[in-house]
Amino acid sequence: MLSSEEIIRTVEMLKNENLDVRTVTLGISLRDCAGPSAEDLCGRIRQKIRKHARNLVSTCDRVADKYGIPIVNKRLAVTPIAAVAESLKREDYVTVARALDQAAQEVGVHFVGGYSALVQKGFTKGDLHLIHTIPEVLSGTERVCASVNVASTRAGINMDAVSLMGRAIKETSLRTADRDGFGCAKLVVFANMPEDNPFMAGAYLGFGEPECVINVGVSGPGVVKKELERAIQSGRKLTLGDLSEIIKKTSFRVTRVGELIAREVARELDVSFGIVDLSLAPTPTVGDSVGEILQCLGLESIGVPGSTAALALLNDAVKKGGAFASSSVGGLSGAFIPVSEDLNISQAVQKGYLSLEKLEAMTAVCSVGLDMIAIPGKVDADTIAALLADEMAIGVVNHKTTGVRLIPVPGKDVGDKAVFGGLFGEAYIIEVRNANRSSNFIRFGGRIPAPLTSLNN
Amino acid sequence: MSQEGQKAWVAVTVIGRDRPGIVANVSGVLYHHRCSIEELSQTVLRGQFAMILIASLGEGAALRSLRDEFAELSRNIDLDINLRELKSEDLAPYPAGESEPFIITVRGEDRPGLVFGITEVLAERGINITNLGARVALLGQRSEYIQVFEVDIPKSLDYSLLKEKLRRRGKEMGVSVDLQHKDIFRAINQI
Fold first, then answer.
1. What pLDDT, on the 0 to 100 scale, is given for residue B2?
2. pTM of the prediction?
3. B177 — contact with chain A (CB < 8 Å)?
4. Which of A9, A66, A256 sits opposite B159 (nearest CB)?
């Protein structure tokens, strides 16, 4: 029996607290499209995507309407293109990317992830072709997202890949200089990349996944914040443990929304239900911010001492609540700190509260990594590679996923603002200290071996 | 009068000022007449007590004398008590047919005509209300008049169109109206 309080509370969450399903991502395997002819491959890709995804947007809209919960993004995730296009020539890779782009446009999705390669232990020919064509693809298409896994706890860190990706990021930003380096917002470098992540830009369909699968990303920093505020304003004496409980229970509710929506969309499309990713993913809307949650927890701003501990509390509470709410939790699942996508975090950079070093520390305890960070355009590729290496090391040693989405903004420096628009928001450029001092380290290349803790059989 | 193999049923409704002892008095009368209370629901609104119960009449129970005793009780303790004789087919719930449970929430400033405004739209479409509550709620600093309707919407009906119609009606009356499937509330609030 539902009480009217529960009903009102639920409606409040949906209407005033920005509770929504952030993304419904349909994974489609392109393994059976592979072949020696680029033209045939493109044709098969377009056909397969059309066949399985043509009803995705309309189904999502219908389910969203039925439950009164917005589904903000509909997306696709495909088999790593490096594998699908393995036997093709380098220039064909760009053609394949364009076919993906067109297919995504045809079915009406915002993004398609999967222009990807997994190179933690070394490269195949296809992997290298893909990596070298990333700048051209990201500047020449609209909806294609790229990701490269350069490290894993089992394999260690492929420093040759790290070096190549440092260059790829730099070049992508130069090619999209007219849009403040926006191409880089569609590129993530990973350690321990998850196979079922529904969020962009790192979504791809892993090799253990079925033909078609629905993965859902929920969100709700606004809901969490409102619950914390209510509790704090009630005047009760609360400890951090109590606040953690509140976040946990709220996260339960938020995840339930995702689970319900995911199962119904999957059922309607006659496709497997994969996972719910219970990440607290912020948007530039005021009130929908992870930075504001940290302020609720008593920090003047994200980035001040205590931020890492507070984020650890938040990340863990989110996971516990979510894990109880759904039997199939996956993807990244935790708290995100994407700088440009969270107005509060972006402002913390501008006001000087938040440094790159502090962000790096926080990535050790939260679920994504150095995400959506605008850096000065002049930073050299080797420094970018070294930053990647640092973040990969955190992921590899701690048995977690870490990702990097750095956006060098050509022609701009600290104090300037990069404007990306929409959900990508705008970002104040953060200082990168000690640039130009790491080239010799990067130049060694090779692989940083896997840590001892990976030998856990 | 009861027959072998076929029970007789009554619905009893009671309204009056709330105070201790009402249910005891009413159930006492039923007990003396060897009636068994099958189901009961009661609520209090603004100090007024209201109850409906369904009772089956025992062997040899006499409806006339039950009515008389309730009439006397009603006079003695100042309550409106009504007895309604039921046939067993009266006990079946309204056949909603193939339908889905939805929840309508109406929020805004209280004014005359709000309940009718919504229920008219529902009645026009043959939609049955299974539960209804309305009260003033405090949300932070503001107070709001809130109605919550649980309804069964026939599968043949397009709930999107209904939502549009309800929203428009709500706009005319200066209130906000939402229509959502009940499962979302269950999912969020129940383990």
1. 46
2. 0.89
3. no
4. A66
